[in-house]
Amino acid sequence: MSTESQVNRMEKIVSLCKRRGFIFQSSEIYGGLNGFWDYGPLGAELKRNVKELWWKSMTRLRDDIVGLEATIIMHPSVWKASGHVDTFSDPMSTCRSCKKLVRSDQVWDMLETTPWAEAVRSCAPGGVADREALLKWAKGKGQRLVPNFALVKDPETMLGRLSERSAEAPGSQQHLLQILCTADPSGPLSMPCPHCAGELTEPRPFNLMFKTYVGPAATEDDIAYLRPETAQAIFVQFKNVVDSSRVKVPFGICQIGKAFRNEVTPRNFTFRSREFEQMELEFFIKPDEVVQAQTGGIAKLPEGELPGQPEANWGWEMWHKYWVEERLRWYESIGLKRSSLEEYWQKPDELAHYARATVDILYKFPFGTQELEGIAARSNFDLTQHQTHSGKSMEYFDQEANLRYVPHVIEPSAGVDRLILALLAEAFEEEEVVDEKGQKEVRTVLRFHPRVAPIKAGIFPLLKNKPELVSKALEVRDLLRPLMNVFYDDGGAIGRRYRRQDEAGTPFCITIDFDTIGENGPEKKDTVTLRHRDSMKQERVRIADLPAYLLSQTS
Predict the structure, then answer these.
(1) Residue 148's domain spans which residues?
(2) Residues 216 and 184 both lie in one domain
(3) How would residue 3 be classed by pLDDT, with cut points 50, 70 and 90?
(4) Which one of 424, 445, 466 terminates a domain?
(5) How confident is the model at residue 184 (pLDDT cuts 50, 70, 90)?
């Protein structure tokens, strides 16, 4: 799919989210607040369903994971120990022309979908500049799109400089853009601003944590932080969980909660936000030397095979691969196809200093393939740091091994908001169908997996001015709504009601018609028309059978 069509697809998804009540811009009536989003009626249900499914998969269906719910604001020493106070920063540049801030490490990703940059690239196929095409663009559309672009301000000079410097990186479109945006011929090449094509300053670190104050004085001694992740609370409460629960290593502690990062460049709808929600698991395991001493060896996974059920001789590598596969399976269970997901194993020079290995699960969003979840083998760095800074022991006494040690940890960490966006992108489809009058029309549908769908069933009386139909429809609604989220609708033609539920992603629609109330004979009395969203096929189902059938499809 072309970049243009993918951008158009993303615009349609954003439009649908507002029109149908999935996601709204925060504080929209006051102009909005960049990087903050509110979930409307359908979005709130979708998000709740996803979180409940994750929580169930982690805690209800396993014996080795317990839950935690910690505060958003913790003692500031937590973030000193974790390294966030000193090192949690992103490189930031400022545009010399429009003064906007940009994350330096995201500039080239942003330029992939920027119209003016796409226009320049089209004038340089394969990185080889078509001087006439560039000159024509600079004197025409370029003046309207990006008047701050050095190429637009002085086309002849910049194109002459291009001839002089293009040999430095032949065939590189990034190098081409850098040359054409840098006004100073003697200075180093700059990166172009994605917004206006002006020159960006050299990167400088920008700490991402939001500061606040605890108490009325608001002095330096009262500084606290909104948490930038949910993981640290789990490490800080590790000993309390061990002492109060009947858990034994290997075991996990999981949490769902809000986190905050003062992103330099929030973008791509809800993908990169300043307030977001995380679903994190810290799974504590024995150090490999303890496993070696207890079992006589460390299990290795044969090439091309997947981990099975956990064994006593598993070291960190097997546990890490196990959790990668567990997470992929879970994504499949809620409707993300494996073909839409990728595994990216970070290279040694990309790993955090404490990580032995990290796998990013990526999703193919319309704006590019981006991270959905990271699964990191974090060694025992976090517990050791908190032990050192707090002076409190984080050692675990292993009765089987008869020794104390600081456990190592495997951390699957997923973003709820990114996942919601992935589910919307995966489900969104436009297709040409024929209506009841034989006319072709475009049907917009969200093909959510029934487990995550905000509304499980729409319930419609065929006519709202027929009391018997309305009464029976309300009876069906009251039968089902203690079991699942349903929506009653008696407004408009039945076809229009179907289309509204298609856009909401509702997997089933139930119509109460004249057969239901026995007007066409007793054989179909107390049956309804059940319409399937994806195939649009309809079947007759007894009202008494609806609860069991729908629960089997949506649970």
Answers:
(1) 89-205
(2) no
(3) low
(4) 424
(5) confident
Supply the pLDDT for residue 325: 97
* pLDDT tens, residue by residue, 21-62: 999 999 999 999 999 999 999 999 999 999 999 999 999 999
Report how far residue 339's alpha carbon sits from residue 274's, in angstroms, rounded to the nearest whole number. 29
477-485 LR contacts (CB < 8 Å, sep 24+): 479/543, 479/546, 479/547, 480/456, 480/546, 480/547, 480/550, 483/547, 483/550, 483/551, 484/456, 484/457, 484/550, 484/551, 484/554, 485/45, 485/454, 485/455, 485/456
461 and 418 together in one domain = no
Which amino acid belongs to residue 48?
R
Domain boundary residue, one of 205, 233, 259: 205
Say if pTM beats, i.e. exceeds, 0.90. Answer: no
> What are the φ and ψ backbone dihedral angles of 58, each rounded to 5 degrees?
-85, -45
Residue 59 falls within a domain, yes or no?
yes
Contact indicator for 407, 249 with CB cutoff of 8 Å: yes
Tokens of 468: 């018997």
Dihedral-angle region of residue 400 (phi above 0 means left; psi in -120 to 50 means alpha; beta otherwise) = alpha
Beta-carbon count within 10 A of 58 CB: 24
Structure confidence by residue, pLDDT tens digits, 17-30 = 999 999 999 999 99
